[in-house]
Design goal:
single chain, alpha/beta, 4-stranded parallel beta sheet, 10 helices, 15 strands, about 20% strand, elongated, binds 6-O-phosphono-beta-D-fructofuranose
C-alpha cells in the first residue's frame, strides 16, 4: 500500500491544518493510501515518538484551526544542527539520520509544507533519494513559482483590521500611528494591507525610503487639515543607503530576526514635532483561524499534492498560477524569491491613491 508522510516546517501559517486535512481525506477517500504525520518538522524523524498515523479521525474538526496539529520547528535544518559535544557547541549534519528514518517508514512520498527554508531542505533531501513534494506556505507570500501562498490572506486581513482600528484612535488624538508588519524581505503584507486599510505611507523592503520624505507627507497632510497619519511599515523596510533593523542576529540555525524599524520611524517623526506611536503586530498575524480564501487554497493544495504523489511526481511543488493549481519543479520555485516589483500594478495603484512609499 502506498505510504505518504506529511510534515510542517518553519514558522506556522493559517491553513496548515486545512492542507493536512485535505491531503489525508484525498489520500484515504480517493486512493486508499496510508498517511503518517511527522511531528515538529524534520525533527520527528529523529524522535522515537515523532511519527503518528493520520486517519480520518485525526483530522476531524481541524479545518478552522490555526497552527498545525503536527507541530513545527524553524531551527530544524538537518544539514546544520547545533549540538553540545564535550561542553562545546558544534554544528553537525544529521541529514543521513533523517534519510534513514524516512526509508524505515517506507514512504512513497513525503509532503513538506513549508516556506523557503523548509522547501530548500526538501530539495536537498531529494538529492539524497527522498521522494519529496512541496506545498508552499508562508504569510510572507515570498515563494517563487506560485502566485500566492496560503496564510498570506489571513495575515493581511489581520493587518488590515489593525490599520482600521488604529485609524479611529489616530484621528481622535491627532497622532501618527505606525504599524510594523511582518514579511521579512518582502513587502506584500504591508502593501496589500496598507492599500486595503487606507494607509497614508507604506514602507517596504523593495523601495528604500527617506525619513525626510516621510515627515513631509505628515506635514502636507497636516497642512491640508488632516492632523493624523497612518503608516504601514514592513519589518524589512530600510532607508536609502541604510540597513534593515535586526532584532536578533542570525547564525547557522536561525535566520536573522527583523524588527525595530517601526520604532525608528515613529521616533523620527515624533522628534519632528508630530506625536507618534508604534504598534508591532508581530505573531498576531500568524495566529487564529484561516480566512475562507486560505482554507480554499490550502484544501486545493493538499488534494493536489496527493494527486501528484499518486502520479509519482517528486521534487516538485504545488502552486497557483492564473487561478489554476499546477505543479512546478522545486528548483524553479526556489530559484528566485517573490518580491514586489516597484513598477507593478499594486505599487502604481497605491501611488495613484496618493499613498507615499517614502521615496519621493
Ligand atoms: O516567515 C514568516 C515570519 O512570520 C516572518 O514574517 C517573520 O519575520 C518571521 O517569520 C518571524 O519568525 P519567528 O516566528 O521565528 O519569530
Amino acid at each position: 500500500m502506498t505510504r505518504i508522510g506529511i510534515l510542517t516546517g518553519g514558522g506556522d501559517a493559517p491553513g496548515l491544518n486545512a492542507v493536512i486535512r485535505a491531503a489525508v481525506k484525498t489520500a484515504i477517500h480517493t486512493y486508499g493510501f496510508k498517511v503518517f504525520g511527522i511531528r515538529d518538522g524534520y525533527d520527528g524523524f529523529l524522535d522515537a515518538n515523532g511519527i503518528v498515523p493520520l486517519d480520518l479521525d485525526a483530522v476531524r474538526g481541524i479545518l478552522p484551526r490555526g497552527g498545525t496539529i503536527l507541530g513545527t520547528a524553524n531551527r530544524g535544518n538537518p544539514f546544520a544542527r547545533k549540538v553540545v559535544r564535550d561542553g562545546v557547541e558544534v554544528t553537525i549534519d544529521v541529514s543521513d539520520e533523517i534519510v534513514e528514518g524516512i526509508s524505515k517508514l517506507k514512504l512513497d512520498a513525503l509532503l513538506v509544507l513549508g516556506g523557503d527554508g523548509t522547501l530548500r531542505i526538501a530539495h536537498e533531501l531529494f538529492q539524497k533519494g527522498v521522494p519529496v513534494i512541496g506545498v508552499p506556505k508562508t504569510i510572507d507570500n515570498d515563494i517563487g513559482g506560485t502566485e500566492v501562498t496560503f496564510g498570506f490572506d489571513t495575515a493581511l486581513n489581520i493587518a488590515m483590521e489593525a490599520i482600521d482600528r488604529l485609524h479611529t484612535t489616530a484621528e481622535a488624538h491627532h497622532r501618527v500611528m505606525v504599524v510594523e508588519l511582518m514579511g521579512r524581505d518582502a513587502g506584500f503584507i504591508a502593501l496589500h494591507a496598507g492599500v486595503a486599510g487606507g494607509a497614508d505611507v507604506i514602507l517596504i523592503p523593495e523601495i528604500p525610503f527617506n525619513y525626510e520624505v516621510v515627515v513631509k507627507v505628515v506635514q502636507a497632510r497636516a497642512d491640508r487639515g488632516s492632523l493624523f497619519s497612518i503608516m504601514a511599515v514592513s519589518e524589512g523596510a530600510k532607508p536609502v543607503g541604510g540597513r534593515q533593523v535586526i532584532a536578533r542576529k542570525g547564525d547557522e540555525m536561525y535566520v536573522p530576526r527583523l524588527g525595530g524599524i517601526g520604532q525608528r520611524v515613529a521616533e523620527y517623526i515624533d522628534e519632528k514635532g508630530f506625536e507618534s506611536r508604534v504598534t508591532v503586530l508581530g505573531h498576531l498575524q500568524r495566529g487564529g483561524t484561516p480566512t475562507a480564501f486560505d482554507r480554499w487554497l490550502a484544501t486545493r493544495f493538499g488534494a493536489a499534492a496527493i494527486r501528484l504523489a499518486a502520479r509519482g511526481g517528486h521534487d516538485r511543488m504545488v502552486a497557483l498560477r492564473a487561478g489554476a493549481i499546477v505543479d512546478v519543479p522545486l528548483e524553479e520555485a526556489l530559484a528566485v524569491p517573490r518580491r514586489i516589483q516597484p513598477d507593478e500594478d499594486g505599487v502604481i495603484t497605491a501611488r495613484n491613491m496618493g499613498i507615499s512609499f517614502g521615496d519621493k
